[in-house]
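Dear support,

We are seeing what looks like truncated structure output for some complexes. This example has three components. We would appreciate it if you could run it in full and send us the complete token output so we can diff it against ours.
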Amino acid sequence: MEPDDTTLQFDKHGNLRHLISLRGLTAELLTELLDDAEGYLTEAGALPARDESLAGRTIGNLFFEPSTRTRASFDLAGRRLGADVLNLDVNTSSRKKGESILDTIYTLEAMHVDIMVVRDAGDGVPAYIARHVKDHVSVLNAGESDVSHPTQGLLDLLTIRQHKADFRNMTVAIVGDIQHSRVARSASEALQIMGVGELRLISPPALAPDPERFPGARIVDNIAEGLKDADVVMALRIQRERIGNLDGVPGIDEYYANYGVNHENIKYAKANAIIMHPGPMNRGIEIEGALADGPRSVITRQVTNGVAVRMAVLNRIGKMMDAR
Amino acid sequence: MEPDDTTLQFDKHGNLRHLISLRGLTAELLTELLDDAEGYLTEAGALPARDESLAGRTIGNLFFEPSTRTRASFDLAGRRLGADVLNLDVNTSSRKKGESILDTIYTLEAMHVDIMVVRDAGDGVPAYIARHVKDHVSVLNAGESDVSHPTQGLLDLLTIRQHKADFRNMTVAIVGDIQHSRVARSASEALQIMGVGELRLISPPALAPDPERFPGARIVDNIAEGLKDADVVMALRIQRERIGNLDGVPGIDEYYANYGVNHENIKYAKANAIIMHPGPMNRGIEIEGALADGPRSVITRQVTNGVAVRMAVLNRIGKMMDAR
Amino acid sequence: MEPDDTTLQFDKHGNLRHLISLRGLTAELLTELLDDAEGYLTEAGALPARDESLAGRTIGNLFFEPSTRTRASFDLAGRRLGADVLNLDVNTSSRKKGESILDTIYTLEAMHVDIMVVRDAGDGVPAYIARHVKDHVSVLNAGESDVSHPTQGLLDLLTIRQHKADFRNMTVAIVGDIQHSRVARSASEALQIMGVGELRLISPPALAPDPERFPGARIVDNIAEGLKDADVVMALRIQRERIGNLDGVPGIDEYYANYGVNHENIKYAKANAIIMHPGPMNRGIEIEGALADGPRSVITRQVTNGVAVRMAVLNRIGKMMDAR
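Here is the complete output from our reference environment:
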């Protein structure tokens, strides 16, 4: 999303219409979305929360990149709000036939699919789509290249808020392949909006981000320094194919020792630090399995929150649609 | 479908039971289906039309050829009528295991799937299935080789009827790979039933059809001549692999210049001619992008009509089933 | 499933919680499940049976091995009980990313998927999952290596019960690749629990099973001897790649002559013997097409019963959940 695209996300009444990026959203809006998401949480084993706020509407899940968990999360979120959800694996059909993304979108639009959930490996694709759809259509970014994954940012924010009192006095450490991580980007944006005390980004120098993409964050290459007194430790997934192959990226053992969150380096964080991971995990590479399964891990909580924040966003968009 | 198979499509009370081909259907029946389809149209942005005419019934979408748009269209049509829709990608599983088509059909039949929507690359497959299913099962052809695509023919007919007054005084020009086009076949059949004034089929000689397959149509290889004073211009998708490879089929630039519908040759058509395409489009090959997106294009309208005619057909079949 | 895992399948009140294997279940429980399944049968052409016993619940179909028919059967069973069914083709996404099975399960659990239907090529996977899920989650085995396929066993049992009076005076012959057949295992277990009169397992010596896996069965390599006076003849699917390649397994023609159920050897069975096959069939290899389609075949009946027994099992698990 270009700097001047922030306004793209709102309709003329100032209501959230698309969710492409968290950038430019207010702390007030994020807080409302998290509050709404809390309303969609029920106990494990209880029936999941449902309402009919999207009854009669159709959601198209357009995943140009494969995904099990994010797609399932959006699928369940939409169905639990009463929507018809159309899952389209666009790799396997239209693109093979050479159809352009916009033609796919126009086709779905013409079928009364009025919420498009889009995952794409291309930078700028969700905003591009949002700029071209008809007035009645909303676009949700479900993962865009290394740029943005806003519902992941929201679920991370909700998870942190559930466990830690105040963003302003908090230290959050994100560890791993920061450079290629849309998860780190959206989490950082969300945390900065909420006025996070300190945000540290820890990675091997070869995977360090462009500092301009993470304004206000401290970029660190030593994990002990990075985790010191952290309240929140978020490990990122690393693409296995990058390990040991990318210039300056160590092999698995060395990566795990120096940039995997493990029982040795977690000691530097606060004793009550929570441990996060967006999944799917490479246990023994970016995170030690015992920590992922341990008492401080909030990783499955993140998944639960993911459905809830997606319901909150979808519900809000449904209300905006109903108000027209 | 063999000539003597027309009756296959009706039950003993004369009600439509299968939709394999438009051949042999009456203008009265087509008109009723289009009228019913009109009832399923709502404004863009409004909730799509729904009813419960298939509540409790199960539709099986059996796509032996990949498809995004037609499958999505049938999927939404079925769900908006209250049916359970089972999407089966039959390539990937049973056929790998060597199961015959009929055994797949018998299996679904035994699971109470009583409407089978079938797309297959094989000539005659939908009729073959229709001849073998139990009395309570209906078969809808969703695209059969180069032979038939009846719901496409209906949606094309509806789109034309919405824009032009009278089929009898109308000139329709279909341009492209006529020889391999089930879309052209079904559109031609539909138009002939409605007594179309003049039907012209324009293609390079190498892609011209067997005239016996298009009785009453005029076969032309010059696009200027073919489009002259046309009320309706329908461009067909060409398989990219045929261009420049098939004997006598020109390369992309020459194809576009001579058989692509573009701003130069569209001048030959009437000033208010509508422009159609079944999708997915190869922009810059069989159609100029600016025309596809321009004011005379009814291409997204075709998509909207596609859901509506499928709902009309499904609803009619549901009523036939309820009457038993 | 290990010998001491029988108790794994029940909750502390003795209610069925997981269905991993039929081993250790009582004749009383099997009878109740079959009786419940009978209640879900309706005539062909009538609307399928439905209730809302799983309304609000979410079922995850986790097929790590491809399957059309079993997945469709569980999908329809779940939907006809009012559940949301999430179909996950786990091959194509998470496993590619190196996610462990348990992490996939934990993820779904966290999304309030509380019934997991699992098919896997690995021995012990369903029990392994059942031992690791949270208290509120149930696991149904939908096909496990060559070990177990309990809902198939139940549908076979129901089909036999519908056609034959009394298990105690019955001779059942199972023919084919017994060694690799989870279908044979679960059918045998079900029949032994019901006190079957005589159970014969017929195969080429190279495909004969370990006798310890089939206690009480008679292992035979001559089909005439094996089918003699049988009341029930069940042909098993053979993997085509095993024929003529596995040491001691004859080529197709010889296999069909000696181990295919055909019009010559069926004469040895009782005149009113029923003929079964789990599907998908290799006609002309393990079964003669004319027999599969003939009056004694109950093969499509098995498919219908499959949906019904899955509904019965799911309904029972839903009741167990509601009682918590």
